[in-house]
Amino acid sequence: MTSVDLMALTPLLMLAAGSVLCLLIGALRPGIYLYAAAIAVVAASLLWSCIVSVEAALPGLSITPFSRFSSVFFCGTGIVSLLLAYSYNRRHGITGEEYPATILFALTGMAVACAATDLLMLFLGLEAFTFAFYILVAIRRDSARGGEAGLKYLLNGTLSAAILAMGMALIYAARGTLKLAELTSSGGTPEPLFLAGCCLILIGMAFKLSLVPAHLWTADVYQGAPAPVTALLSTASKGASLAALILLLPTFGTWDGLHDILWLLALFSMLAGNFAALVQSNLTRMLAWSSVGQMGYVALALVAAPTGGLKAAAFYLVAYAAAGLAAFGAVSALSEGEEFDAIESCRGLGYRSPLTGAALALAMFSLAGIPPAAGFMGKFAVFAAALRGGEIVLALVGMLSALVAVFFYLRVVVVLYMKPSTPTIESVRVPDFSEKVALFVPAVAILLLGVYPQPLLELLEKILR
User: Fold this and answer.
1) Is the peptide bond before 213 cis (omega within 30 degrees of 0)?
2) Considering only CA atoms, which of 372, 421, 245 is closest in space to residue 317?
3) For residue 118, what are the β-bridge partners?
4) CB 385 within 8 A of CB 301
5) Within the chain, which residues score under 50 in pLDDT?
6) First to last CA, the chain
7) What local confidence, expressed as pLDDT, does residue 63 receive?
8) Which of 17, 153, 213, 301 has the most CB atoms around it within 10 Å of its CB?
9) Is the CB of residue 263 less than 8 Å from the CB of residue 203?
10) Rounded to the nearest 10 degrees, how much is the dihedral formed by the CA atoms of 446, 277, 412, 429?
11) How high is the pLDDT of residue 339?
């Protein structure tokens, strides 16, 4: 390994070493300071990825502009999640070094997944961060709902891992290699064994992205997990899964079945997610079901990959992540004892807690695709790519389902600002400094990406060539 290779791997090594050290130091001297130390490690990894623009090719891993961009994205979401957890975990009795160490381990797995050059390393990266979320979802030992969510996620995730592993095994049996570059360049007519492997991989990735029909775990897990965990699970894990799928897409070659499967995944996800969210009275469950619809728009962009869909999918995921962090950050900041996640509990919240209410309202505007929020530009990019690719029917279904989604997103805004508080609604807690920062950062990102998206779009154009 050369010095250049070591410099390129440094952000990944920081996260991995930080996770181990956090566990060891916490065993000797536990304390809340470990959250600050974890934030410092993630921030150092983020800055290194931004400043040191070196590339390296190692066995199983390749540090490229795409992997560096993905790492910056994961680290940014990780910092916001840790800022939220700093106060949330103290209030809810989640003590010990396990939480920050597991967050760092999850970020390490995400970084590995987006830098993988063979199927084995890709699988290890995907399952590393998924395994971390098994722990994080059920980390509140006194919560029956958290234990149920953890069990459901574990059972579904284990099945997904088995399906992914079987798919990769079939591809290896058909082609005799695990390297993504060799699978991409092999060409020729796909063998039945290879196609079977591809289908299994798509099913496994559908679970990671909460696409129909592998989506039924989403609402229960989002509701049962601690709010800061949900904030990271709904954003960074989706980003890592999309990055892995983008790396996998070239290996499918010119197989027509890929288009058809993605088309169906997009169609049913947009319809099922948005219509199910219509009837939810719980904010977290509404956001969970709507995330199924949001990932349907990402799948729609992947259908139009030849006409700029990859760039649109990546941009949409970043915009969705900013809104998701703001929304679940608001739930986290307001939760004291039980989760503050009933929509009716938000009555007058825009006046009772202006910063939290504004962040939540801005997130709803972005998720609904209303300008000048980032979600509008994301939906515009996705639908434009779909129309350029001739996917007129799917684009029309997406537009109509987006109109349906406007109703339940704006319903939250109406409750925030247009319905007065009732005497039965208790006063809300005031967010502390770390929570204010965690709400302010994604809110600013929503506005910046909505008003001035060009720099990010140009960057994605370069790294996704």
Assistant:
1) yes
2) 245
3) 179
4) yes
5) 424
6) 28
7) 87
8) 301
9) no
10) -80
11) 65
In the numeric block, which tokens belong to residue 243?
């990055």
Angstrom distances, CA of residue 302 to CA of 63, 73, 263, 265, 445 = 23, 20, 9, 11, 24
For residue 357, with 0-12 CB atoms within 10 Å meaning exposed, 13-18 middle and 19 or more buried, which class applies?
buried
Structure tokens at 26: 């916490």
Q: Judge contact between 363 and 446, C-beta under 8 A.
A: yes
Please, which residues have CB within 8 angstroms of residue 185's CB and are 6 or more apart in sequence? none
- Tell me, what's the pLDDT at 113? 92
Upper half-sphere CA count for residue 214 (Cβ side, 13 Å): 26
Residue carrying structure tokens 């790396």: 247
Q: Amino acid identity, residue 134?
A: Y
In the 3-class helix/strand/coil scheme, how is the chain assigned residue by residue? CCHHHHHHHHHHHHHHHHHHHHHHHHHHCCCCHHHHHHHHHHHHHHHHHHHCCCCEEECCEEECHHHHHHHHHHHHHHHHHHHHHHHHHHHCCCCCCHHHHHHHHHHHHHHHHHCECEHHHHHHHHHHHHHHHHHHHCCCCCCHHHHHHHHHHHHHHHHHHHHHHHHHHHHHHHHCCCEHHHHHHCCCCCCHHHHHHHHHHHHHHHHHCCCCCCCCCHHHHHHHCCHHHHHHHCCHHHHHHHHHHHHHHHHHCCCHHHHHHHHHHHHHHHHHHHHHHCCCCEHHHHHHHHHHHHHHHHHHHHHCHHHCHHHHHHHHHHHHHHHHHHHHHHHHHHCECECCCEHHHHCCHHHHCHHHHHHHHHHHHHHHCCCCCHHHHHHHHHHHHHHHCCCHHHHHHHHHHHHHHHHHHHHHHHHHHCCCCCCCCCCCCCCCHHHHHHHHHHHHHHHHHHHCCHHHHHHHHHHCC
Q: Which residues contact 352 (CB under 8 A, 6 or more apart)?
A: 421, 427, 428
Q: What is the pLDDT of residue 188?
A: 61
Render the burial of 383-413: b for 16+ CB within 10 Å, e for the rest: bbbbeebebeebbebbeebbeebbebbeebb
Tokens at residue 463, please?
């790294």
What residues contact residue 247 under an 8 Å CB cut-off, 6+ apart? 114, 116, 122, 180
* pLDDT score of 421: 66
Q: Which tokens hold the place of 419?
A: 């319905």
Angle at 314 between CA 329 and CA 380, to 5 degrees: 90
Q: Are strands 61-63 and 56-58 parallel, antiparallel or unpaired?
A: antiparallel
In angstroms, the Cα distances linking 210 to 87, 288, 342 are: 29, 9, 23
- The first and second tokens of residue 249, run together, are 């897409």
d(CA 461, CA 465): 6
Q: How far apart are alpha carbons 254 and 251 in whole angstroms?
A: 9
